[in-house]
Specification:
This protein has 335 residues and is α+β, with helices and mostly antiparallel strands. It has two domains: 85 residues; 228 residues, Bira Bifunctional Protein, Domain 2 (BirA Bifunctional Protein, domain 2, 2-Layer Sandwich). The longest helix is centred in the N-terminal third of the chain and has 40 residues. It is rod-shaped. Bound molecules: 3,4-dihydroxyphenylalanine. The site of 3,4-dihydroxyphenylalanine (DAH) has 12 residues, from β7, β8 and β9.
Length: 335
């Protein structure tokens, strides 16, 4: 009988889970448990011995019940403590990195240009990427047989529309819709059907500007250009102005800026010349004013068209325009 107790106690103390304790309870106190069987066996003894053994067995039974209850508490507490230890949150550990997107460099520069002109009192407008021959060519003084049509190789749609080859058609639409006088810029995506290289892409971005008033001057045009460049590059930029031919302006100019990729030494971006053709501009041709519904004896205008893509390349010193529309995150992550 002493063994019954000491063995039970040893097993209870060694138990580490509530399941262990349940097994022990069944083995000693269950229907066929050792204590239960021993108590049942008392009936075969004579009364004196039966009482004596019965008292001892019942004491052992209570001791086992007490020991089980105590151990159950301990095990339960240990189990909770283990869980708390395992599931503990360490607030000092670094968090998971959050991938954060940002604006494409083209969009960043575009927003700067829009802000700049907005502050100078310009309308900022959007026009169509799918245009017709009239707005893209004819109204801009480029008739069908004009050699200038060859200057811009065009994507035609099956229905006769085309993807605009420049943002200049916006000039006609702006003249026809805005109250005069006005100044406006219209940025947008343009398309050319041509071979691509470091400085040519079939899809790129331009910003067109147009000022219409009773009397305008080239000096005023130039000052607007210098303001835009200083704003985008954050400092004065070295430029040169050359006569340039565009059917929709007279006189027409080309404005070049010092190549910022190579600093003027020569590189693929500037075709080794040290200068990058930057924008075309001039005084709006009377035929274009007429196409826009304006009387050239009453109104004058100046216009410019700048490669926004080129602005981005120069601002960041990128040497290949094809990166811009590549969708390659190895490139865009750098901005
Ligand atoms: N549309 C011309 C081009 O894409 C750029 C241009 C030149 C726009 C002169 C103008 C301008 O408004 O006056 O090459």
């Amino acid at each position: 009988m002493d063994d019954l107790w000491s063995e039970a106690r040893a097993r209870i103390e060694a138990a580490t889970t509530t399941a262990d304790l349940r097994d022990i309870e069944v083995a000693w106190l269950g229907k066929k448990g050792r204590i239960t069987l021993a108590l049942r066996g008392l009936g075969a003894l004579d009364p004196g011995e039966r009482r004596e053994r019965g008292q001892v067995l019942n004491r052992i039974k209570r001791d086992i019940e007490d020991a089980l209850a105590r151990r159950r508490d301990e095990v339960a507490r240990a189990e909770i403590e283990a869980r708390v230890r395992e599931e503990r949150v360490d607030p000092t550990l670094p968090g998971l990195p959050v991938a954060c997107g940002h604006l494409h460099p083209l969009t960043q520069v575009l927003e700067d240009v829009e802000d700049l002109f907005d502050r100078m009192g310009y309308h900022v407008m959007d026009f169509y990427e799918v245009e017709d021959e009239f707005h893209n060519f004819e109204a801009l003084n480029i008739p069908a047989d004009h050699p200038a049509r060859d200057l811009q190789d065009t994507f035609y749609l099956e229905d006769g529309h085309l993807l605009r080859t420049h943002t200049s058609p916006g000039q006609i639409r702006a003249m026809r819709t805005l109250p005069k006088p006005f100044r406006a810029v219209f940025p947008g995506r343009v398309y050319r059907f041509e071979a691509t290289d470091a400085s040519h892409e079939h899809t790129f971005h331009q910003v067109e500007g147009l000022m219409i008033d009773r009397s305008v001057s080239v000096a005023n045009l130039l000052s607007a250009m210098m303001t835009m460049l200083a704003g985008v590059f954050g400092r004065r930029v070295e430029v040169r102005l050359r006569p340039g031919y565009f059917p929709f302006v007279e006189p027409g100019f080309e404005l070049d800026v010092r190549c910022r990729v190579c600093g003027g030494r020569g590189c693929p971006m500037c075709k080794q010349s040290g200068w990058v053709e930057f924008l075309g501009c001039g005084l709006v041709h009377p035929n274009v004013l007429r196409a826009g519904g304006l009387d050239p004896s009453e109104w004058e205008g100046w216009a410019f068209g700048v490669g926004l893509s080129r602005l981005v390349l120069l601002r960041y010193g990128i040497d290949d325009i094809r990166w811009l529309m590549s969708g390659d995150v190895r490139f865009t992550r750098g901005f």
